[in-house]
C-alpha cells in the first residue's frame, strides 16, 4: 500500500487544528516521510497534500507509518 493513499485526507477543520497545533485526539501522518505525530508536535508542519489523518496510532502504524522521534507519535 502506498502511504499517500492510506488514512483520510484532512478536512478544513483538521487542517486548521493541525496548523494551529490544537488538540483533536487524532493522529497526523505525513505521506512523504512515513511518520505519524501527536497533536502539538514541534516539528515543522508538512504540506497539506501530504497530510493523512488517522483515528488511532495503531491504525497509522498498520498503514506503514512509524512514530515521530520528536513527539513520540501519539503515545
Structure description:
This protein has about 80 residues and is of the alpha+beta class. It has a single domain (about 5-65), classed as 3-Layer(aba) Sandwich (DNA Methylphosphotriester Repair Domain). About 20% of the residues lie in helices and about 15% in strands. The protein contains 2 helices and 4 strands, in the order H-E-E-E-H-E. It has helices at about 10-20, 55-60, and strands at about 25-30, 35, 50-55, 65. The chain has a 4-stranded mixed sheet with strand order 3-1-2-4. It is globular. The mean pLDDT is about 90. It holds the Pfam family Ada_Zn_binding. One of its GO terms (biological process) is regulation of DNA-templated transcription. Keywords: Activator. GO terms for molecular function: DNA binding; methyltransferase activity; zinc ion binding. InterPro entries: Ada-like_dom_sf (IPR035451), Ada_DNA_repair_Zn-bd (IPR004026).
Amino acid at each position: 500500500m502506498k502511504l499517500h493513499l492510506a488514512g483520510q485526507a484532512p478536512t478544513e477543520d483538521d487542517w486548521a487544528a493541525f496548523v494551529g497545533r490544537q488538540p483533536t485526539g487524532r493522529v497526523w501522518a505525513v505521506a512523504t516521510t512515513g511518520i505519524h505525530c501527536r497533536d502539538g508536535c514541534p516539528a515543522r508542519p508538512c504540506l497539506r497534500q501530504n497530510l493523512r489523518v488517522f483515528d488511532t496510532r495503531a491504525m497509522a502504524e498498520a498503514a506503514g507509518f512509524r512514530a515521530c522521534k520528536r513527539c513520540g507519535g501519539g503515545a
